[in-house]
UniProtKB/TrEMBL annotation:
Name assigned to this protein: non-specific serine/threonine protein kinase
Organism lineage string: Eukaryota, Fungi, Fungi incertae sedis, Chytridiomycota, Chytridiomycota incertae sedis
Originating species: Piromyces finnis
InterPro entries per the UniProt record, alphabetical: Chitin-bd_1, Chitin-binding_1_CS, Endochitinase-like_sf, Leu-rich_rpt, Leu-rich_rpt_typical-subtyp, LRR-RLK, LRR_dom_sf, LRR_R13L4/SHOC2-like
Signal sequence interval, chain numbering: 1-19
Keywords of this entry: ATP-binding, Cell membrane, Chitin-binding, Disulfide bond, Glycoprotein, Leucine-rich repeat, Membrane, Nucleotide-binding, Phosphoprotein, Receptor, Repeat, Signal, Transferase, Transmembrane, Transmembrane helix
E.C. number(s) listed in UniProt: 2.7.11.1
Disulphide-bridged cysteine pairs: 526-538, 531-545
Cited Pfam families: Chitin_bind_1 (PF00187), LRR_1 (PF00560), LRR_14 (PF23598)
Length: 816
């Protein structure tokens, strides 16, 4: 996941000038600037009733500073200001800092802003500004910070921006800018970061970009850029973060990329790049994330990939790669996500893959891999998600898979696996999804699955399994148990297992404790009063589940049932929404899909995981009024979360984790008062956390981590009295930790790491008797660790908070 930190830099880099001003405020109480104050009174008078604007002191460091009868600094961010920026702002010719971000300002940026010849810092980001960027902005030759991002600006980037030769920080992202990137951008030799992403920019990347030798951050992603990646990009010797993804770039990856030896993040995914992955990529020893997915790359994965010892994320899926997975991949011991799916890879899964002890996700599905699954997979102690389906894997499922205690899903369907299902699989008590269908497995279903309390879906269909079905009535999360097309004895299935909401399924149907006769050419006719279905079963209706044709038993397993009857009913409008999302035929009965659960013809649960959807969430999902569960995980969902989802009043679980969603979290989600789990982690969500989430009185788990969220943590989250887990780590959040968190009496885990949080650790956290773990790593917290926390048996992680004075180790774990 990329780390978007630029808003945090506003706080850290600008802190010198801001604190300098605050220290001197008391000395300036007598200052007046009547003309300047009048020029901007339409802004400051909205919130402050003082007669002299030089006396403005807000609660959150808002202020106006005056010197010698002139305004020099105007900091009115996050102040709910409305209306337009007056053209008279151009009269403030002594202004050095203009910070109006995080308001609701509308209208255009006045051209008179070009009169502010002393301006060094300009922040108009996170408003509702429209129109074009005035060319007069090129007159601000002293400008160091230029943030116009997160507005609704249109038009092209003026070429006069090339006059800003002192510019170090520039963000024009998340607007509607069009046209080409001006070649004059190459004049900005002091530039440290530039954010042009999430616009509608066209044309090629100018070769002059290679002049920016001090550039560390380059964001050109999510535009409409065409042409090749200029070889001059190799001149950016200081570059650490390069994002060119989600454009229409063509040609090969330039070999000059080898010169970017400081590069940490390389995103070239979702383009039309061709050729092979250059071996030069092996020179990037500092690389942590490499995203090349969804291009047209061919050839093999170069063995030099093993040189990237710091690599944590390798995503090469959805290309045309061939050859074997190099054994050198075993050197990448820091790897957390390995996604090689949807290629044409052959050969065996290298046993060296077992050395990746930090691996959380492995996606090798939809290739042409052969051979057995290496037993070394049992060494992947951090593994949570595994996808091996639609290959040609053979041999037995290794018993070592039972050692993967954190595993949540296993997808092994559509292979050629043989042997029995290892009984050790019952050790996977966190497993939720187990797909072993469409293989050649034999033997009994292990009774140890009775211990898998988190299991939601178990699909064993289309194998050669025999024997009884284990007792699964205690698996309260169960929704689907598919054992169709096997040789299973069904006499032991008890009706009571259906009474608590469990659905023991055969070919998607609920077992009703009934076995039926085979019929047809090999079996003869049915008894009087019954007909023979096209699948070869006797019954009073023609809709029966099929049976494994290799199984020569007269009495077989389940047939037409209540759920099958329900599936004949369907709400056409509801299915239209799902069929649109899954790109199914409009006539498709979505209620027959294993990923959809219906009741009385209405959709109540959606579980979609690991599918390549690459499309936006249809707003019509908000019309599924009976929906209780909505999970679309790891499916490349794009666009924003529609506000219409706030209409799903029965929703209990909402999970959009591991997609490529952007935009803000709609405040309408605060209407989902029955919600128990809200998980939107590992996306590209921007904006602030809506305070309306504090209305979710039944929420137990909230995970918004690994996004681009900004602003402060709303104190209203302290209202979530049932909350057990709160994960907001790896965002760009600032401000203090709310004291109201002391009200979260059921909280067990709190992770706010990798943000820009300031101030002390609230002592109120010591009141939380159920709290086991607090992670506050990589922030700017100050003060000491409260004694109320020291008395508790809490794991507290606080390292890399340079202003935190307390180095005590009296707590169970304190890492400072």
């Amino acid at each position: 996941m990329r780390l978007s930190r630029f808003l945090g830099l506003v706080l850290t880099v600008s802190s010198t000038s801001l604190s300098y001003s605050i220290d001197k405020l008391s000395k300036r109480d007598e200052e007046t600037a009547p003309n300047d104050c009048k020029a901007i009174e339409s802004l400051w008078k909205q919130k402050y009733s003082v007669a002299n604007c030089c006396n403005i002191r807000g609660d959150n460091y808002q202020y106006i500073t005056c010197e010698n009868g002139r305004i020099t600094e105007m900091v009115l961010s996050d102040n709910q200001l409305t209306g337009e920026i007056p053209s008279t702002i151009g009269n403030l010719t002594n202004l050095r800092i203009l910070l109006l971000s995080g308001n609701q300002l509308t209208g255009t940026i006045p051209s008179t802003i070009g009169n502010l010849e002393n301006l060094q810092e300009l922040y108009l980001n996170s408003n509702k500004l429209t129109g074009s960027i005035p060319s007069e902005i090129g007159k601000l030759t002293k400008l160091i910070w230029l943030y116009l991002d997160s507005n609704q600006l249109t038009g092209s980037i003026p070429s006069t921006i090339g006059n800003l030769t002192n510019l170090q920080h520039s963000a024009l992202a998340w607007n509607k800018l069009t046209g080409k990137i001006p070649s004059e951008i190459g004049n900005l030799h002091e530039l440290y970061e530039i954010w042009l992403n999430s616009n509608q920019l066209e044309g090629s990347i100018p070769s002059t970009i290679g002049n920016l030798k001090k550039l560390v951050w380059l964001h050109l992603d999510k535009n409409r850029l065409t042409g090749t990646i200029p070889s001059e990009i190799g001149n950016l010797s200081a570059l650490q973060y390069l994002y060119l993804d989600d454009n229409q770039l063509t040609g090969e990856i330039p070999s000059t990329i080898r010169k970017l030896t400081n590069l940490k993040y390389l995103y070239l995914n979702f383009n039309q790049l061709t050729g092979e992955i250059p071996s030069a990529i092996g020179k990037l020893k500092n690389l942590q994330e490499l995203w090349l997915n969804s291009n047209k790359l061919k050839g093999t994965i170069p063995s030099v990939i093993g040189n990237l010892s710091n690599l944590k994320v390798l995503i090469l899926c959805d290309n045309q790669l061939t050859g074997e997975i190099p054994s050198t991949i075993g050197k990448l011991t820091n790897m957390q996500r390995l996604i090689l799916a949807w290629n044409k890879l052959t050969g065996k899964i290298p046993s060296e893959i077992g050395k990746l002890s930090s691996l959380r996700d492995i996606w090798l599905n939809n290739n042409q891999l052969k051979g057995s699954i290496p037993s070394t997979i049992g060494n992947l102690s951090s593994l949570q998600h595994s996808y091996f389906m639609e290959n040609q894997l053979s041999g037995k499922i290794p018993s070592t898979i039972g050692k993967l205690s954190l595993l949540q899903d296993i997808f092994l369907e559509d292979n050629q696996l043989t042997g029995e299902i290892p009984s050790e699989i019952g050790n996977l008590t966190n497993l939720k999804y187990l797909y072993l269908n469409n293989n050649q497995l034999t033997g009994k279903i292990p009774s140890t699955i009775e211990k898998m309390s988190e299991l939601i879906i178990l699909d064993l269909s289309n194998n050669n399994l025999s024997g009884p079905i284990p007792d699964v009535e205690n698996l309260t999360n169960f929704t689907t148990f598919d054992v169709s097309y096997n040789c299973i004895d069904c006499e032991n299935i008890k009706d009571k297992s259906l009474q608590n909401g469990n659905e023991i399924t055969c070919s998607g149907s609920v077992q009703k404790n009934k076995c039926e006769l085979r019929c047809g050419r090999s079996w003869g006719s049915c008894p009087e009063g019954q007909c023979c279905s096209k699948e070869g079963f006797c019954g009073t209706t023609s809709s029966y589940c099929s049976h494994n044709k290799k199984c020569q038993r007269k009495y077989v397993k389940c047939v037409y049932t209540q759920k099958q009857q329900q599936q004949q009913k369907r709400d056409n409008k509801e299915c239209d929404v799902i069929n649109k999302l899954l790109k199914k035929d409009p006539s498709y009965n979505c209620c027959s899909d294993t990923e959809i659960e219906c009741s009385n013809g209405h959709i109540i649960k959606i579980y979609i995981q690991g599918k390549y959807i690459y499309d936006s969430i249809p707003p019509e999902l908000g019309n599924l009024s009976n929906l209780e569960e909505l999970k679309v995980h790891g499916c490349y969902l794009t666009g924003s979360i529609p506000s219409s989802l706030g209409n799903l009043s029965n929703l209990k679980n909402l999970n959009f984790e591991q997609n490529i969603l952007e935009g803000a979290i709609p405040p309408e989600l605060g209407n989902l008062v029955n919600l128990e789990n809200l998980k939107i982690s590992r996306n590209y969500i921007t904006g602030s956390i809506p305070p309306e989430l504090g209305n979710l009185s039944n929420l137990e788990k909230l995970n918004l981590s690994e996004n681009h969220l900004t602003g402060s943590i709303p104190s209203s989250l302290g209202n979530l009295s049932k909350l057990k887990q709160l994960f907001l780590y790896q965002n760009v959040l600032n401000g203090t930790i709310p004291h109201e968190f002391g009200n979260l009496l059921n909280l067990e885990e709190l992770d706010l790491s990798n943000n820009y949080l300031t101030g002390p650790i609230p002592s109120e956290l010591g009141n939380l008797s159920k709290l086991k773990t607090i992670r506050l790593i990589n922030n700017n917290l100050s003060g000491t660790i409260p004694k109320e926390i020291k008395k508790k048996n809490i794991k507290l992680y606080t390292y890399n908070n340079p202003l935190l004075n307390d180095k005590s180790s009296n707590i169970f774990i304190v890492i400072t």
